[in-house]
């Protein structure tokens, strides 16, 4: 009740202020209240928003002379100056709240107030404009962005709010314009951006739409007057220059690349790069070195880097001879427990889709995957089995791996698992004993899937995309859905916890 | 003459109908389709027909239907049937009649007839009033009796003599010669009087018989009570059957001895048991290989020309079998050994059981004497029906140990112990338990025996204390009321008695009740496992309940399986919420229960397979962060081992987990510094245990206690209390867990020796073992275990690998030079092997085609008929018009003629 009373009171104060200049001190009261009590932040901001939106609309802070030579002491201009001071003060408060407040609701309120004020200020500039040009209070936006990015924590919810404004072309272009000075400013001042900052920055880039490639390619300009955040009356012909935006993106990206990245941010950077930025870069080939470096760092980062290189090879004529050994070295048991497993299988399926690859390389892949299947969880064994099946389909020479009647017995597997170079792993001399062993996997699904080496191979490849995203819960569900007509039971009546025959648990456990 | 003109009697008309001559076919009307070839035995429907008759019939039908329609075409007038209820199909004919009758009566009630006094209409039937008929007098017809004795006259025929005299001139000539006095007129008069007299006589006779019958009837009625009374009196007089008679009758009607199963000797019973077990085992093996009950071998449909009739079929199944056989040879020839041995063992078992049973029965009889309750006697009955009578002796002893124990004790009993010894040997071989352990086992088993004795006493006490009958509770609360505060032994007895009292053979609803009880017991188990944080009652609860659960599961397998599946599903969903944490004992206990109730070796089983998936999920996902996690993981791994003990299948998850345990017990985690994933060391754990950041749990004892751990002998078995609580890892636990995981590993390795990929499966273990051997803290027992495992792995490494060979393709059949012979039947039907559905569709299609043809023909004929009628009408109207025109012309010309005549006459006048 108290809160609603306060907000009512504040609202009436705001109305009083607007109705009569005698109540001018209301504004000072509100600001004081804002400072005094944490809980009153939201209603205070609302009241201030009401006041300043109206003030801006009435242009009460509008100053003709920008030169301070005329320090006319008349009451009107003094009042205006005082209002300006108050306005700046409020802005400072808003930014402080956004960066420091613990309450998300307060932050959100401050943010929306700030955006509204920006819009009003853009429509009603505080100072006379030079020409008939579009005015955008970019210094305010820059301050806001700076606060958002360097708040020292993950400000994803506020960035999501900002993303809502990205449908205004002027906001979009101004954000991109402002990002570069922020980035370069940090670099110049010698500061090292911390992890949170980078995370927020990348998040922002990820969330903010880039110029659409269809239009952006030709750098066409668009007249988008009707859909502006700060569209002034009387001014028309706001032009969104795609070329400028592309340039801004390129510049920003150039800065981001040179920061110091932790593995987590590097992964994020690569994801953003691959999924958003790469098509807009002017010279993507310049990324090659960077990708190469990340390729060696192992794990998910190298996988993402590999994807980048693949894109470069595919679209930008990059030549990279060693790519297969890099891909080969990526198949380690740890890969099954990363988020990017599906991506790896998808990518390697693409890489190995060519039927002109040397057989021994492909065989090495098949053999290595088979080895991995011995430690993999069942859902991955499914993928691996189909993958190997597809490899054999594409390269009929690999049939030797599952059907080699001419060889004598060998004392041990000729395949060298530790070898980094696929062509030297002697996989063609080996045989896929692993698949044979998988036929006696505990799960019947895996066992039957591994049976393919005994059946004639199909004429069409297996479709990997359906099972790439499968997880073990799906397998559980599927097994639960299967219902046999008859339910078999044991025929030895147990008298105790231990089985009458083939008891194992009680050899290792004393449970009773 | 008049006599002959008798109206047709009722009988005659019937006779005429009956004797209506079968229309003989006019041979000129019959059309015969001549056949070109005559086939014996073939019947054709279409070989002869009556085209004229058929056409006439069709025409008639058309006239009745099509013509009527044609006449009514384009006419809107309608004939309305206003009869009451004629359109209403719900009314029967009688209803309609009564409705109409009432309507008529209503109409009759109008004013006009209000004063009509004689409104009582007399209803008649055949001229008689209904009242009269209702008297049920014999409505005799006048001509039914005499038929019998005078057939000739019966129907008013004249007799032969009269005919001879009177007809055809009546032999006038002869009479004239004989006697001329009698004229013809006299003769006829005489005839008439004669016949009248005869008629009168007949009438009289009839009346007499009528009177007589009536008289007889009345007399009979008078007699009736006398007749009826007589037998009753006789009944009273009948002498009572004496005891001898009764006995005799009884003996006479008593069923002679039914053929029963002959009494079997113990040997035979044992043999039968054995055979049954073997059969069940064979079924299990089939399921293990994933073969359904249908015959797997498909009889080859094709035989090539150079088939040698030796039943040799070159196909994949044979090949597979060969391969399997080969592997069995290549492996440690475990299974081959097992075959004959196991039979012997089972025999040994049976013998034992037989002995025990005898003892038990004795005991129970004693009990009966004491209690002498009705309920007890019913219990006794059930005992016989029970799946396997309870023998407490073997109940408490874990199998293997009991056997070895028996072996030690009964040395004097040579016959039995020999088999038992082989059994123990085999057990050891298969599980790789060692001689050293055996010694300690003996000590332990003695201790356990003591323990068991105590327990048995406790059970006896429980048996005596508890009431003998228990109702199956309806709700979980009721069950809790019964079970609350009881020790596991008591709970076991309670449930056992519940099950006995609701044996399915006692009442048909009992099965349902038992199914419900199963669900309640699941809940009980769950709560027992979830509630105890400090004590491990749940396992002993399961221990006691398992026998009853087994019985229930055998009586209602579907319901219990469904129940456990539900539990599994619930547990899995619970686990999904916290993927990285090991689930509690309340989940593990069910996984153990599954292995007790369901055959875990099946290729696919509706309960076991989901459980395996779930277990794999837990092992491959959960983080190992505490002592309890290690213990739970090890329990799961040993469960995996138990599940796959028979099927010898392989689960990567359990081996990965053991690898991680071994890794954590080395000092590698503390020494290896790995910062990024770029270059991984050769020896490393597999996720979920991560190398970077280094794992938070270590099973490696801290430095200063090295010596103390060295001197500690590891215990063989982990304890259930390791699964719960929050105790941290201590040194003893480190040693124990390493020891147990090593032993599990070695039994897994010996299970999987037959797999060609056994080497890569265990390849990560070897370096770990090497580093473990270098460690100083391990007791000698553990190091020995390590060495043994190393040897085993080494031996696996030495077996040569055979290259995979695909199943060779079936050789293509040579071209055959002999003709293809097909069986041909003479009934003209094609006997091609087509499926039933196809046959059906073919038949239907044929029928549709025929029907279509027929319909088209009918339509054509209809059209012809209509055109003919139109033409006829046209002709008729034309001729009419012509006649009219002619008439008019005629009239006109007449008129003209008369006009001319008149003119001419006028002219003439002038």
TrEMBL record, chain A:
It comes from the Eukaryota. One of its GO terms (biological process) is ribosome biogenesis. Residues 302-450 form the CCAAT-binding factor domain. InterPro entries: CCAAT-binding_factor (IPR005612), Noc4 (IPR027193). GO terms for cellular component: Noc4p-Nop14p complex; small-subunit processome. Belongs to the CBF/MAK21 family. This is CCAAT-binding factor domain-containing protein.
UniProtKB/TrEMBL annotation, chain B:
GO terms for biological process: maturation of SSU-rRNA. One of its GO terms (cellular component) is small-subunit processome. Keywords: Nucleus, Ribosome biogenesis, rRNA processing. Residues 330-383 have a biased composition (Acidic residues). Residues 1-29, 288-442, 697-717 are annotated as: Disordered. Residues 11-21, 303-312, 320-329, 424-442 have a biased composition (Basic and acidic residues). It is found in: Nucleus, Nucleolus. Pfam families: Nop14. InterPro entries: Nop14. Belongs to the NOP14 family. Involved in nucleolar processing of pre-18S ribosomal RNA. Has a role in the nuclear export of 40S pre-ribosomal subunit to the cytoplasm. This is Nucleolar protein 14 homolog.
């Amino acid at each position: 009740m108290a809160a609603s009373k306060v907000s009512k009171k504040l609202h009436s104060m705001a109305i009083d202020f607007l109705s009569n200049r005698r109540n001018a001190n209301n504004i000072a009261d509100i600001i004081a209240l804002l400072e005094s009590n944490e809980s009153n932040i939201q209603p205070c901001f609302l009241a201030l928003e009401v006041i300043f939106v109206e003030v801006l609309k009435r242009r009460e802070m509008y100053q003709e002379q920008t030169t301070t030579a005329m320090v006319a002491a008349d009451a009107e201009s003094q009042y205006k100056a005082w209002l300006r001071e108050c306005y700046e003060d409020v802005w400072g408060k808003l930014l402080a709240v956004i960066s420091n407040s613990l309450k998300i609701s307060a932050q959100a309120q401050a943010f929306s107030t700030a955006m509204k004020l920006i819009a009003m200020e853009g429509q009603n500039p505080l100072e006379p404009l030079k020409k008939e040009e579009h005015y955008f209070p970019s210094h305010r936006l820059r301050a806001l962005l700076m606060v958002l990015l360097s708040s020292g924590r993950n400000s994803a919810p506020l960035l999501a709010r900002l993303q809502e404004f990205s449908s205004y072309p002027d906001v979009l272009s101004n954000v991109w314009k402002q990002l570069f000075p922020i980035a370069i400013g940090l670099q110049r001042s010698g500061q090292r951006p911390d992890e949170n900052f980078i995370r927020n920055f990348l998040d922002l880039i990820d969330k903010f739409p880039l110029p659409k490639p269809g239009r952006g390619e030709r750098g066409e300009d668009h007249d988008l007057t009707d859909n502006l955040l700060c569209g002034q009356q009387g001014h028309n012909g706001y032009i969104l220059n795609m070329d400028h935006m592309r340039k801004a993106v390129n510049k920003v990206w150039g800065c981001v690349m040179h920061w110091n990245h932790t593995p987590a941010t590097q992964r994020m950077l690569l994801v953003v790069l691959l999924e958003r930025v790469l098509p807009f870069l002017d010279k993507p080939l310049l990324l090659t070195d960077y990708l190469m470096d990340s390729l060696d760092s192992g794990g998910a980062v190298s996988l993402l880097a590999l994807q980048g290189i693949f894109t470069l090879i595919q679209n930008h004529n990059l030549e990279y001879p060693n790519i297969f050994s890099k891909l080969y070295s990526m198949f380690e048991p740890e890969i099954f427990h990363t988020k990017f497993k599906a991506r790896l299988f998808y990518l390697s399926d693409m890489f190995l889709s060519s039927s002109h690859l040397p057989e021994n390389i492909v065989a090495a892949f098949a053999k290595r995957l088979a080895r991995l299947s011995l430690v993999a969880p069942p859902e991955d064994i499914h993928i691996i089995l189909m993958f190997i099946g597809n490899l054999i389909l594409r390269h009929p020479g690999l049939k030797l791996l599952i059907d080699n009647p001419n060889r004598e017995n060998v004392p041990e597997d000729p395949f060298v698992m530790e070898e980094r170079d696929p062509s030297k792993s002697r996989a063609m001399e080996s045989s896929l004993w692993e698949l044979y062993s998988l036929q006696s996997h505990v799960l019947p699904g895996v066992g039957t899937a591994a049976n393919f080496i005994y059946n004639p191979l199909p004429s069409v490849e297996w479709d990997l995309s359906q099972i790439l995203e499968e997880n073990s819960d799906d397998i559980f569900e599927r097994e639960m859905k299967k219902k046999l007509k008859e339910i078999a039971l044991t025929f030895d009546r147990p008298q105790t916890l231990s089985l009458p025959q083939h008891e194992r648990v009680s050899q290792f456990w004393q449970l009773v | 003459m008049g006599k002959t003109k008798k109206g047709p009697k009722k009988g005659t008309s019937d006779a005429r109908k009956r004797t209506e001559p079968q229309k003989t076919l006019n041979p000129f009307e019959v059309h015969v389709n001549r056949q070109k070839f005559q086939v014996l035995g073939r019947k054709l429907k279409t070989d002869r027909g009556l085209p004229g008759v058929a056409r006439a019939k069709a025409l008639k039908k058309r006239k009745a239907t099509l013509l009527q329609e044609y006449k009514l075409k384009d006419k809107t007038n309608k004939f309305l049937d206003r009869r009451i209820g004629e359109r209403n199909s719900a009314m029967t004919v009688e209803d309609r009649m009564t409705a109409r009758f009432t309507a008529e009566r209503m109409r009759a009630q109008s004013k006009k007839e209000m004063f009509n006094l004689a409104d009582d209409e007399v209803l008649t039937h055949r001229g008689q009033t209904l009242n009269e008929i209702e008297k049920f007098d014999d409505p005799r017809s006048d001509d039914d009796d005499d038929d019998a004795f005078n057939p000739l006259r019966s129907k008013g025929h004249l007799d032969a003599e009269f005919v001879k005299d009177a007809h055809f001139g009546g032999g006038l000539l002869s009479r004239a010669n004989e006697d001329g006095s009698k004229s013809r007129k006299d003769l006829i008069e005489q005839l008439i009087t004669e016949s009248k007299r005869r008629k009168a006589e007949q009438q009289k006779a009839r009346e007499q018989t009528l009177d007589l019958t009536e008289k007889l009837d009345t007399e009979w009625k008078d007699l009736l009570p006398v007749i009826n009374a007589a037998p009753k009196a006789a009944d009273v007089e009948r002498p009572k059957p004496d005891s001898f008679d009764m006995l005799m009758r009884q003996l006479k009607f008593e069923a002679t001895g039914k053929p029963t199963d002959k009494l079997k000797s113990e040997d035979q019973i044992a043999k039968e048991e054995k055979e049954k077990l073997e059969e069940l085992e064979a079924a299990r093996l089939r399921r293990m290989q994933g073969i359904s009950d249908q015959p797997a071998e498909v009889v080859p449909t094709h035989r090539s020309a150079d088939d040698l009739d030796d039943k040799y079929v070159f196909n994949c199944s044979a090949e597979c079998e060969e391969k399997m056989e080969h592997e069995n040879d290549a492996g440690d020839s475990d299974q081959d050994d097992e075959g004959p041995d196991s039979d012997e063992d089972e025999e040994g078992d049976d013998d034992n059981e037989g002995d025990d049973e005898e003892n038990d029965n004795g005991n129970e009889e004693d009990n009966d004497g004491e209690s002498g309750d009705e309920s007890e006697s019913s219990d006794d009955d059930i005992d016989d029906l029970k799946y396997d009578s309870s023998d407490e002796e073997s109940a408490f002893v874990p199998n293997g140990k009991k056997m070895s124990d028996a072996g030690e004790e009964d040395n004097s009993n040579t016959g039995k112990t020999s088999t038992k010894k082989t059994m123990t040997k085999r057990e050891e071989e298969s599980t790789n338990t060692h001689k050293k352990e055996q010694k300690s086992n003996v000590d332990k088993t003695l201790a356990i025996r003591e323990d068991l004795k105590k327990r048995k006493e406790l059970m006896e006490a429980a048996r005596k204390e508890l009431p003998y009958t228990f109702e199956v509770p309806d709700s979980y609360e009721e069950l809790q009321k019964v079970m609350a505060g009881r020790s596991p032994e008591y709970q076991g007895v309670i449930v056992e008695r519940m099950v006995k009292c609701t044996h399915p053979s006692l009442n048909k609803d009992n099965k349902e009740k038992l199914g419900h009880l199963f669900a309640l017991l699941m809940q009980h188990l769950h709560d027992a496992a979830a509630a105890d944080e400090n004590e491990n009652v749940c396992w002993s609860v399961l221990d006691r309940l398992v026998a009853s659960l087994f019985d229930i599961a055998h009586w209602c397998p579907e319901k219990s399986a469904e129940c456990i599946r539900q539990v599994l599903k619930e547990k899995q969903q619970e686990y999904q919420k916290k993927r990285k944490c090991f689930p509690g004992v309340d989940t593990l206990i069910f996984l153990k229960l599954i292995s007790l109730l369901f055959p875990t070796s099946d290729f696919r089983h509706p309960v076991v397979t989901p459980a395996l998936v779930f277990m794999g999920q837990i092992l491959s996902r959960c983080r190992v962060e505490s002592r309890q996690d290690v213990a739970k993981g090890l329990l799961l791994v040993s469960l995996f081992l138990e599940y796959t003990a028979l099927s010898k299948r392989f689960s990567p998850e359990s081996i990965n987990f053991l690898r991680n345990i071994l890794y954590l017990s080395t000092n590698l985690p503390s020494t290896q510094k790995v910062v990024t994933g770029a270059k991984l060391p050769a020896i490393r754990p597999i996720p979920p245990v991560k190398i970077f950041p280094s794992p938070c749990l270590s099973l490696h004892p801290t430095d200063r206690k090295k010596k103390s751990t060295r001197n500690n002998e590891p215990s063989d078995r982990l304890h259930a209390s390791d699964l719960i609580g929050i105790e941290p890892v201590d040194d003893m636990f480190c040693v124990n867990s390493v020891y147990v995981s090593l032993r599990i590993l070695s039994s897994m390795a010996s299970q999987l020796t037959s797999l060609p990929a056994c080497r890569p499966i265990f390849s990560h273990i070897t370096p770990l073992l090497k580093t473990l051997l270098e460690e100083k803290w391990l007791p000698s027992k553990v190091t020995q275990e390590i060495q043994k495992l190393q040897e085993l792995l080494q031996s696996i490494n030495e077996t040569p690998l055979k290259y995979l060979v695909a199943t060779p393709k079936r050789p293509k059949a040579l071209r055959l030079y002999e003709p293809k012979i097909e069986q041909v039947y003479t009934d003209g039907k094609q006997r091609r092997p087509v499926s039933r559905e196809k046959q059906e569709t073919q038949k239907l299609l044929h029928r549709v085609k025929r029907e279509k043809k027929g319909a088209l023909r009918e339509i054509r004929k209809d059209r012809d008929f209509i055109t003919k009628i139109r033409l006829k009408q046209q002709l008729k109207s034309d001729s009419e018009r012509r006649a009219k025109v002619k008439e008019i012309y005629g009239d006109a010309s007449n008129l003209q003629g008369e006009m001319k005549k008149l003119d001419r006459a006028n002219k003439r006048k002038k």
